[in-house]
Amino acid sequence: MFDTLDALLLARIQFAFTVSFHFIFPAFSIGLASFLAVLEGLWLKTGKTLYLDLFKYWRKIFAIAFAMGVVSGIVMSYQFGTNWSVFSDKAGPVIGPLMAYEVLTAFFLEAGFLGVMLFGMDKVGRKLHFTATLMVAIGTCISAFWILSVNSWMQTPVGYEIAENGQFVPGESWWAIIFSPSFPYRLVHTVLAAYLTTAFVVGAVGAWHLLRDKTEPHARKMFSMAMWMAALVAPVQIFAGDMHGLNTLEHQPQKVMAMEGHYESHPEGAPLYLFGIPNDKEQKLDWALGIPKLSSLILKHDLNAPLDGLDTIADDEQPPVGIVFWSFRIMVGIGMLMMLIGAVSLFARWRKKLYDWPWLHKWALLMGPSGFVAVIAGWVTTEVGRQPYTIYGALTTAESVSPLDAPAVGASLLAFVVTYFIMFGAGTWYILRLMHKPVTGKEEVAENGPIRTAGMRPGNNLTGQPA
C-alpha cells in the first residue's frame, strides 16, 4: 500500500514521529530531575517531611519517564543508519564524536547515580544520596548540552571542511563546532522550556488535588512552587525566545520569513501577521490579519526597517510555510498563556487567594500538557523551517536519505506507530494513575511484606518452619 508514496517523505514522517515521542520525555525528565534535587535539598535544609513526601512521590514518576526517554532515544539512533545512512556517512566525522561525548559524560553520569537516587535512600547517607540526585539532574542537563550542540551545528554549520570523499570533517577547532552560532540561544531556550514543561505538570497535579481538598498541604506546596516557576521563568523564556529569533534571522532568514508569513519583501516596515492561510502555490498569505510594521519593530527594533520576504529566496530553497507559520504561533500562544497564568497567580498570592480560587486551579489543570505541546511546536518550527536541508545550506534532505524503497520504510513506520502507541501509551497511562493518587508519604509494599528468596522470611529455617 506504500508503493505510490515517496520513500523520502515516509522517512521524514518516521523520524518526525519517533523524535516527537522521544522529545516529550526528556523535556519532562530534565525539569523533573532538577525539581527532585530542589525537593531533597529543601528537606535536608528544613527537616520538613512534606518535602520528603513530595520527593518520593515524584521520584516514581521520574523513573518511568526517564526509562521511556532512554528507550525512545535508542530507536532514533538506529534510524541514522537505516533511513539516513548517507547523512550518517557524510556528517559522521562531526556529529559522531559529539553524540559519543553525550554517552561518555551525561549517560554514564546518569546511569552511575540513578540507582542510588531511586533505591539508595535507606542504604546510603543523606548527603551521598543528595549528591546522587544532583548528579542525575546535572547529567540530564549535560545530555541536553551535547544533543543541542549537534542540532545547532546542523542548523548553523561552522568549523568544518569538506574532505575529498565528500565527508564533513572538523576544521582547525572543535570549539567552533560545539559552540556554533545558534547553540547558546537554543540551549537556553530548550532547557527553560523543559523546566516550564515540568512546572506546569506539577502545577496541574497540585491543582487536581486542590480541587478535591484545598487544605491538603502537599497539593498546596506543589501548586505554589509551580506557579512561582511560571511567574518567574515564563517571562525569561519569552525574552530568550526573542533573542533566539533574532539569531535565527541572522543565520537562517528564510526560516523567519516562513514563521512570519512574509512571502513578499517589505521595504518600509513589515507587518506582524496574527492570522492567515499560507498559500505556497501563489506565494501569498490568504485572509491575512496583521498589525502594520510590528514585525520590523520586533525583529529590527525599528518600525520602518526593511525586511526581505520569500520572494528573494528560490522556490526550491523555501521551507513549507504553512507548517512553520502555524507551529510558531502555537508555541508563542502557549508561551503567552504561561506568562499570563503566572501573573494571575502572583495577583492571587498577593490577595491570599492562591488556594481558594477553583477557576484558577481548573485553568492550571488545563495547562498541564501545554508544555509538551509547546516544545513539540517549537521543534517543528525549528526542524521544518530548516528544510530543504539537513545541514543548513550544505546538505539537502533529499541527498541524505538511504537508498530504500517506499514499502520498506512504510512497513517500519507502521510498526513504529503500533508499537509506540501500545508501549508508551501504557507508560503514560500508568504515570497518570500515579498522579491521580494523593501524596501519602508512604512507600507502597507488597501486602505480606517484601518477597524473599524461596519464600523464606527472617527467623525461618530451610523448611519454612519456625526454628
Give a written overview of the molecule.
There is one protein chain. With 467 residues, the protein is mostly helical. The protein has a domain at 185-394. It has helices spanning 7-46, 49-82, 85-119, 126-155, 174-178, 183-212, 217-251, 253-260, 294-300, 321-350, 358-366, 370-384, 397-400, 406-436, and strands at 160-162, 168-170, 272-279, 284-291, 389-391, 395-396. The protein has a two-stranded antiparallel ribbon. It has a two-stranded antiparallel sheet with strand order 3-4. The protein has a two-stranded antiparallel sheet with strand order 5-6. A hairpin with a 3-residue loop joins strand 5 and strand 6 (395-396). Helix 2 (49-82) runs antiparallel to helix 14 and helix 4 crosses helix 6 (183-212). One of its GO terms (molecular function) is metal ion binding. One of its GO terms (biological process) is aerobic electron transport chain. One of its GO terms (cellular component) is cytochrome complex.
Question: What key phrases describe this protein's structure?
Answer:
single chain, about 475 residues, mainly alpha, two-stranded antiparallel sheet, 14 helices, 6 strands, about 5% strand, disordered C terminus
List the helices and strands and how they pair.
Elements (H helix, E strand, L loop, with lengths): L6 H40 L2 H34 L2 H35 L6 H30 L4 E3 L5 E3 L3 H5 L4 H30 L4 H35 L1 H8 L11 E8 L4 E8 L2 H7 L20 H30 L7 H9 L3 H15 L4 E3 L3 E2 H4 L5 H31 L31
Antiparallel strand pairs: 1-2, 3-4, 5-6
Helix pairs in contact: 1-2, 1-4, 1-6, 1-12, 1-14, 2-3, 2-14, 3-4, 4-6, 6-7, 6-11, 6-12, 7-8, 7-10, 8-10, 10-12
